[in-house]
Amino acid sequence: NFNNQKLSDSTIKSFEILFPCSNYFKTFLCSIYKPPCYEEESIILQPCQSMCEHVYSRCFPLMNTFGIRWSDDLNCTNFLDDNNQGCMNDPGYPKDLLLANYN
């Protein structure tokens, strides 16, 4: 529905200031608020717990600095563990590892 789409867009936009904390933060948010859907299999992919935990560890300190709350929607215990085929699992986060070397 159009109103839900607008709400999802505005929720993601409200986090834009935090995108630099992780190259995976936008993917993480979009997978929650605008999940990729594969119609032929009726599968909606959400992040695995490892992706949530990675983004949380990289982004929560910045969120805390700006007084932004890590919402209940983003609670890592809400997501499937990495052994599940129905979620986006840990890709090794190579882009964030490269960034860490420059900090």
Structure description:
It is a single chain. This protein has about 100 residues and is mainly alpha-helical. The protein has helices at about 1-15, 25-35, 50-65, 95-100, and strands at about 35-40, 45, 45, 85-90. The protein is built from four helices and four strands, in the order H-H-E-E-E-H-E-H. It has a two-stranded antiparallel sheet. It has a two-stranded parallel sheet with strand order 3-4. Strand 1 and strand 2 (about 45) form a beta hairpin. The N and C termini lie far apart (about 40 Å). The model has no long low-confidence stretch (mean pLDDT about 75).
Fold topology:
Layout: H1 2-14, H2 25-33, E1 37-38, E2 43-44, E3 46-47, H3 49-66, E4 87-88, H4 94-102
Helix pairs in contact: 1-2
Give a short synopsis of this structure.
This protein is 48% helix and 8% strand.
Determine the N-to-C terminus distance.
Answer: 42 Å
Beta-strand residue fraction: 5-15%
Largest sheet, order of strands side by side? 1-2
For the secondary structure, the number of strands is 4
The helix fraction, in percent, is 40-55%
Shape: globular
Summary keywords:
4 helices; two-stranded parallel ribbon; globular; about 100 residues; mainly alpha; about 10% strand; about 50% helix
